[in-house]
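Q: I have 390 residues here and want to know how they pack in 3D. Can you give me a structure?
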Amino acid sequence: MRGRTWLLLILSRIVLNMSFRVAYPFLPAMARGLGITLEQAGFMVAARSLVGLSGIAFGVFAEKRGYKAGLLLGIAFLVVSCFLVTAFENYWIVLIGFVVMGLATAVYNPSVQSYVSAHVDYRHRARALGLVESSWSASWFLGIPLSGLLIARWGWDSPYRLLLILGIVLFAATFRLPDAPSGAKTNPGSSALPGSDSPPAATPPRRIWLALAVTFCILFGNENVMIVYGAWMESRFGLNVQSLGLFSTLLGLTEFSAEISVALLVDRLGKRRGLFLGITGTALGYLLLSFAADSLVSALASLMVMAYFFEFSVVSSFPYISQLAPAERGKWLAANYSLLVAGRVLGAVVGPALWEHFGSLQPIALVSILGNLAAVCFLSRAPRPHGESP
C-alpha cells in the first residue's frame, strides 16, 4: 500500500478510537451537560460496548461486499453517531448515538485489520498490524488532552463535533481507496505451506474457535483487574484523581511500547510464539501484583509489566487470527473482535463483584492468572497459521 493509504487508515483508527476512549475520563462532565446521573452516563458506555458483540455479523458483510465497504460503513456509523450526540440534548437520543458509535468500531476495526492483511504478505503482517494498532495508544495521547481543552472551552459535546467533521472528511478520502483483494486471492504464496504450490487445507471452524477463546480469556483477565485497579490504588496508597490520571498516561506509553515491539519483533519470532509470550508475561504481571500490596513503586511496576504484555498479546493475536482461514479472514477477525468484547464485558462484571466481596486485589489477580492459564491451554490446541513454521 502507498504511504498516504497507511496514513489515512491510521488517522481513521485514531479518530474512531478517540470516539471510544474520550468518554472514560470525561464521563462526569457529560453527565452534567446532559443533566443525568453518572449511573445513566455509565449505562450509555455499557450499551456502546455491548453492541460490539455484533461484530461477527459485520464480518460476514465485509466478506460479501469487500473490506473497503466495511471501512466505509464503519466511518458512516461514526458520522451518524456524532451527529446524534451533538445535534440533540436528549438523553435517549444520545444513548442511541452511543450505540451507533459502538457499531462503528465493531465494523471498522476488523475491516481495517482485514484490509491491511489482504495487502501485506504474512511474513510482514505483524509489523503492518502493529503500526496500525499503535493508533490505540495514539488516540489517548492526542485525543484526551485535546478533548479536555475543547470541553473546558466549548462544552461536553465539543469533541464529538470535531469527530463529526473529521468523520465526513475521512469518509470522502476512504471512498477513493482501492478495493482489497478477497481473502481467497490474497498472497497465495504465503497462505500455502512452505515448499508447496497448492493452497492450504481448510482449517476446521471448531479449531479456529479455540484460537478465539484465547482472546476471550486474556481480555477477561485484564478487564477483571483494570476495572478495579483505580479503587485499589486509591484505597491502598491514597492516590488522588490527578495521580491516577498521570499513571494512566504512563500506561498509555506502555501500550505504545508494546505495539511497536510487536511491529519490530513478532514477524521474526512467529505470531503464535508472540501470542504465547504475551499471555505468559501478562500472567507474570498479575502474579507480581499479588505481592505488591505494601509498595507503591512495586505496584506501579507490576501494573506496567501487566499492561505491556497484555497489549503485546492482543496485538499479536490479530496477525495470528488473520492467517488461520485466509479465505474467510474478515469473518474470523470480526468474530475475534466479538470475543474480545465479550471477555471485556465479563471481566467488568466479575472484577467489581470480587472487589466488593474481598476488598483485596489478590483474589482478583488470582482469577486473572487462571484466565491466562486457560488461554495457554486453548492456544496449545488451536491451529497453527498457514505458512508459519513450528
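Q: Anything worth noting?
A: The first helix runs from residue 3 to 21. Residues 205-381 form a domain with the Growth Hormone; Chain: A; fold (CATH 1.20.1250.20).
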